[in-house]
Here is the input.
Amino acid sequence: MEINTDITLRKRVERTQRLLAEAGQVLEASLDPTTRLANLAQVVVPLLADWCVVHITEAGQPIHPVAVAHADPQKLALADDLQRRYPPDPDALRGVAQVLRTGQPEFYPETSDEPLVSPRDAEHLELTRSLGLKSVMIVPLVTRGHTLGALTLVVSAESGRHYTEADLALAEELARRAALAVDNARLYAEAQQLNAELEERVLQRTAQLLAANTQLENSRVQLLRLAHYEQAAREEERTRLAREIHDELGQDLTGLKMDLAWLQKHTRPKRKDLLQKFKAMSDLVDTAIQSTRRIATQLRPGILDDLGLLAAMEWQLQEFEKRTGIRCKFSSSLEEVALDADGITVLFRILQETLTNVARHAGATQVEVFLDQAQDTVSLRVQDNGRGITESEVAGLKSFGLLGMRERVTLRSGDFHIQGTPGQGTTVVIRLPLNQGRVATPEAP
Ligand SMILES: Nc1ncnc2c1ncn2[C@@H]1O[C@H](COP(=O)(O)OP(=O)(O)OP(=O)(O)O)[C@@H](O)[C@H]1O
Ligand SMILES: [Mg+2]
Here is the structure.
């Protein structure tokens, strides 16, 4: 731009560098695309133009000005007014609309008042004249092959300046940088938007998962409560049955046996046939008494309630050894276990279930049982020397023995572990907290 004929080449180079440097700074100064363009308009005026307008075209929207700058503050309002009241005619063959369509710059080094616009009315012509266009460049804002706007640079008649090819090249470079800056800002905004949407979706999903998890947890707690209720009811029923069979049936049978003895005693010795019958009946009653004791004990050994866990375990192991021939060893450092009746039943039932498994699956010749207490925990370990349970058997979902044991222990906030070593045996370890509440189920929500 020839501001003055004696501008030296050096000054021109300096001005170009200064413009590009300042433009670079202001284009980066904000993340908002419109602000970036407004800042650029401020840098361009007055270094490269007396006034300048930046137009943008966005999908679905008409061409609109996003920044207007004028060297003369009084004329800024006029320039602004002109842009807003008379936006570019989208069908015009010259001017901003054409530059946006073609992506090619338009260059008017020396022009009259109305070269670019066909005045739409007298006021339009008046406004344009009062701004006094002298020399005009309209350069497209092109990025990634897409024209997103146009930069219109004007020197007015009063300044006596006019644009050169070098100014056009500089304007194109500025436009290229501005387009890139706007594109980057838009991409950044899009990325931010996507990020925000993603975060929103993650938040929603997390909330859904939390809700589902709470529901699941509630169902689990309800199931545990139900399991505990059923377990307790079953145990109570067994205790009642055992007592009734033992006490009532057992006493009746004992009464019967005494009556038979009385009959035997009061039958004349001559009546051998009757005496033989009484003897057979008495033997049968003896067998029935033994059966009731056995059945009652199987339901719930009285020794568990009368003499406690240690005695009941010892008795159970002796019975097991007698029945199966598998040698049993019992060790405990305790004299009694400070557990409530429910806890004692849990340990005893688990021992019974574990021994049944040894007899059925292990092929063992020996079982060792340890009962110990450390701080607030009582632990039961049952170790056999059989084939060793496999990992898939531990994880198996088809059988209910292990599942039931685990459940009983969970209900008491305890741990249940079972592990096998091939050819060497299986170890089951149960740990129950001593002072924990009876049931590990929180109150219903
Ligand atoms: N001491 C053991 N030694 C080797 N394998 C074992 C031992 N205890 C259990 N298993 C294996 O683990 C499986 C699961 O045991 P679990 O007690 O759950 O079921 P089960 O005894 O087969 O049937 P039930 O439901 O009647 O108890 C058994 O089928 C068996 O294969
Ligand atoms: Mg079993």
Notes: The domain at 9-188 is CATH 3.30.450.40 (Beta-Lactamase). Strands lie at 51-56, 64-70, 106-108, 133-143, 146-156, 327-332, 366-374, 377-384, 415-421, 425-433.
